Amino acid sequence: MKGFLEWFKSSTKMKRWILMILIGIILACYGMATVLVTKEMSFANVGKIIVIFVVGFTCIILGVIFAQKRTMELLIEASDLRLEKGAKNVNVKSLIFNKKIYNEGPKIVVIGGGSGLNTVLKGIKNYTNNITAIVTVSDYGKVPTNSRKELELLPSDDIKNSLISLAYNEEEMEQLLDYTFSSKLRDLNFGDIYLSAMKNVHKDFSDAISASPKVLNISGKVLPVTTDEMTICAELENGMIVEEKEQIPQVVYDKVTKISRMYISPSNCIPAPGVLEAISEADAIIIGPGSLYTNVIPNLLIKNVAKTIKDSKAIKIYVNNIMTEPGQTDNYSISDHIKAIVDHAGEGIIDYCIYDTGEIVPEFVRRYNKEGQDLVEQDVQKCKEQGIKMIQRNMSDIIDGNIRHNPRAIAEAVIEIICDDLKYRDKENDPEYIMMKAKIKEEKRKKRNIRPIYKNKSKNKVQNSKGSHVKRKASKFNEKYKERIKSIQTSEEQMYKNRKKLEK
Question: What is the pTM of this model?
Fold first, then answer.
């Protein structure tokens, strides 16, 4: 009985649809009863009864549809809330429902490498389980230790990091895969041994990676873009060729030149099994963020990858970098990033570009300036002229003193694009649309509910026009960077005091 009464709470927003169903039933019953008890009817009475019956029947249908839609939203919200509170409070039925809905989510392919790819995966996994991460495998050529030689390991660091990003519990998965052994297994970690064992069991490295999500119980799957041994090479504007990926930025910086084009050696590397199939079946393909020339573009140079992306009916989204990268994208604007991708992969590779608002504390930007980095110039109009739809989002975050992409902001922007596309195709009642809209609403509600907490309340009260005291809201800027601004002010005050002492 208690559970039944909960449906009538104002927070559930179910009473309106229950009322609509009841009104519909009453009208439909009234129309049918009138037909049964009336012996003679004029055309006017017949028309009136038909209208009442149709209105009643329509109310019943709409009430049932919207009640089911709201029920699904409530179950998703309840399931996610239980998962956030911890495993002890998780309801089994909600978990089963949650898994079913997420398994019916949009098919999303994320292409890239490094921390940029992992950032996107961390956000997208909150909306769907149908994720395929296509990772650049480019660490060939490094001299392995004796332990790694014995296991005949392929480069796997980027793959391990992607598996960690897709895990339900990232911290525990990271501790497990990065656990380093001693004695005879020196320099090896559990991730190396696990991938080596999976490769031997499945007789193929690509199949071993594909099977890992089921074994590790993670969301989505990870695929190497190719299992062929390849080298990422750069041809510079001065004609010089650099054949070591790690050396490219330093050589560009030392020679005071730019990258003319990227290529892979050998040029006929074939995609790993499942890569082209995942791209062709995707609902959305996300390219980037990450190192433009060494992590993003090399994926597009693998045979038939760029062609399959262009031929796919999926929405193609490029997530632009927030900062330039020394030796790769010095003084680059958004249009320069897009042009580099188009020059290597051809037209039609990007439909949308998500870029940052650039609202970052100057102190952090100045620190990056000292390392030769700067904010990516936002020449939005030039990008629009290229036929790219531009979407601006506040997706920058400060993590451990570094400027990073916010996983949830990127995911929210991507899901909104997918929802708009589903709405355009009249699929508003599909489970995947309902699930994603419910998640987006929940994320926005959480953001609205965040309020600054003040230690000294008296300092944050101001008088209004009537003379009464009201709380003064902190700006979003101060709220987000309060601690950092305080440390900057403290350091400047100390610098001023030291200068005064020197002058004396």
Answer: 0.71
Eight-state DSSP code of residue 376: P
Domain count, the chain: 3
Cα 354 to Cα 183, 220, 334, 350, distances in angstroms: 48, 23, 10, 11
- Note whether 252 and 110 are same-domain residues: yes
- 236 to each of 280, 327, 328, 422, how far by Cα in Å? 33, 11, 11, 43
Same domain (yes/no): 19, 133: no
Residue range 124-156, pLDDT digits in tens? 988 888 999 999 876 544 544 455 445 555 556
Structural domain contains residue 499: no
- What six digits make up the tokens of 63? 């009430």
* CA–CA dist 50, 66 (Å, integer): 24
Closest CA to 105 of 135, 67, 132: 132
- Bridge-based pairing state of the strands 461-463 and 469-471: antiparallel
State the amino acid at position 90 in one-letter form.
V
Residue 503 lies in a domain: no
Distance CA 245, CA 141 (A): 10
By residue count, the chain amounts to 504
In a domain, 501, yes or no: no
